[in-house]
Amino acid sequence: MSAASETLSGAPEGGILERERIIAQPGFNRWLVPPAALAIHLCIGMAYGFSVFWLPLTQAIGISQRVVCEDMTLVSALFTTSCDWRVSDLGWIYTLFFVLLGSAAAIWGGWLERAGPRKAGVVAAFCWCGGIAVAAIGVMFHQLWLMWLGAGVIGGIGLGLGYISPVSTLIKWFPDRRGMATGMAIMGFGGGAMIGAPLADMLMNTFKTASSVGVWQTFLIMAAIYFVFMMGGAFGYRIPPAGWRPEGWTPPEKSAKSMITSRHVHLRDAHRTKQFWLIWAVLTLNVSAGIGVIGMASPMLQEIFGGRLLGLPELTFNELDASQKSAIAAIAAGFAGLLSLFNIGGRFFWASLSDKIGRKNTYYAFFLIGIVLYALAPSAAHMGSQVLFVLMFGIILSMYGGGFATVPAYLADIFGTQFVGAIHGRLLTAWATAGIIGPVVVNYIREAQLNAGIPREQVYDFTMYILAGMLLLGLICNMLVKPLSEKWYMPEEEVARLQAKSAAADAGPTGSFGIGKGGFDGKTLAAWAVVGIPILWGVWITLQKTAALF
Q1: Residue pLDDT, tens place only, 533-548
Q2: What are phi and psi of 209, to 5 degrees?
Q3: More confident residue, 73 or 505
């Protein structure tokens, strides 16, 4: 094997996981790749729904009633076997998820480009599912540090690799519909909790006994289910031969002002450009605004509307009794579920729209519409119009999801497709940053407003104006994104060397690959049914829960 071959493959040629083994053969249907990506994203997307385990785990020892230890610190909570955990102790797993997701994507994004999506998908499956299994052991022996290590750290690495595994591949298979392709896959990450949370609830109720809350059994069952789906997705990945393009499609002509390049920027240079950091800031600011709302969606609706949610407009949140607060909590859960649907739908809608109007214009829409909606949200709240309020935040969350789904295509337009997966991985450090900024802004301003004596129904007003200001900064950053200077692009000879192995394996005329512009055969329909049926089930469950809102 040549040195070049060793460099590109990273392992002996011919292994079942190697990149050269998954180059598509003539007749392969490119529409088989999105359901493979969805199979992985729907599994790792359960990270959004892990809060369903928090309350049961706070009674893991007491079962019917918490065993509270007043002097327990965060450090002692990691090792205690006699005290029940607090939600705040468990919540660190959620933080670890997204810090490790961004870090793993940034660290191993370059390796993924060399190893290929199949190997990355398999590693992601072992990390995510293995991490959940380790967390199950942590529950069995009541060791919080094992849960942090398993679900948070090992699982978080699986999240990062699984999240970026299909991005480069989908963009290369769908150069004519980059936004739509990444939107189809990444909407799965938003939809994972919609399927996983009700499934987890059903399993916990099944395994619950007088001596167990049913969480560790649920972890093991879900880890096994996810492992099957993720391995199926990983082995469903195929990459197109170098130079392949859909039959009848030609790249758009390059102009001086074009935002879509046909050239490629090397991974080593991407972060040295101001365009990378401008797009990093664009994503950070868009996500910070949305993720802060997601984290406080349920209490926000309850505190703003109070008795209005029960048809009792004269009662504020503090004036409700325990049973009434329980009733509006159920309605607020429906609100959170509805926002999840908008999050999912927005990933596909906005990313697909970006194919028509361009990525930069799509982000202009996010920021301009978002500024208006955040600025008007307090007025909708003061009017007492919960339908208008819910609709406004549904649109905001659609643009939050749309930002994630559109950014890979934005990067491919600016930096080319050769290293887009690895570049996207590095950009996801913006997500980790936003995961800190957004909740901090919303939570701490809320606390400050409450301490200042502001009524609960008004404590979010100032926050909304702050979030609108963040989107204004994002708008300015997006405005500054321009096409790259010629100096950043790799010479054609370097691109040719990088693509040499893939090109050597090209075994047919380009027109014989994929299905051109449309059409589904039986195999493709079956693949879509495997991921589509769980999605429809999740949508149905969510709609049932949200009915109470209206």
Answers
A1: 999 999 898 888 777 6
A2: -135, -175
A3: 73
Q: Which residues of 476-499 are buried (b: 16+ CB within 10 A; e: fewer)?
A: ebbeebebbeeebbbeeeebeebb
- Number of Cβ within 10 Å of residue 509's Cβ equals 9
- State how far the Cα of 158 lies from the Cα of 251, in Å rounded to an integer: 35
Assign a CATH topology to domain 37-240: Growth Hormone; Chain: A; (1.20.1250)
Question: What does the alpha-carbon distance between residue 287 and residue 367 come to, in Å, rounded to a whole number?
Answer: 11
Q: What angle do CA 204, 97, 94 make, to 5 degrees?
A: 55
Domain boundaries, the chain: 37-240, 259-489
Is this structure's pTM higher than 0.90? no
User: Helices 117-140 and 155-164: crossing angle, nearest 10°?
Assistant: 160
The class (CATH top level) of 259-489 is mainly alpha
CA angle 328, 333, 335 (to 5 degrees): 95
Q: How do residues 37-90 score in pLDDT, each as one tens digit?
A: 999 999 999 988 888 888 889 889 988 888 888 888 889 889 999 999 988 888
3 state SS of 261: coil
With beta carbons less than 8 A apart as the criterion, state whether 191 and 202 touch. no
| 3-state SS track over 77-89 | HCCCCCCCCCHHH
Contact 463, 442 (CB under 8 A): yes
Rounded to whole angstroms, the Cα distance separating 199 from 196 reads: 5
Is residue 175 within 8 A of residue 245, CB to CB? The reply is: yes
Structure tokens at 484: 């790259």
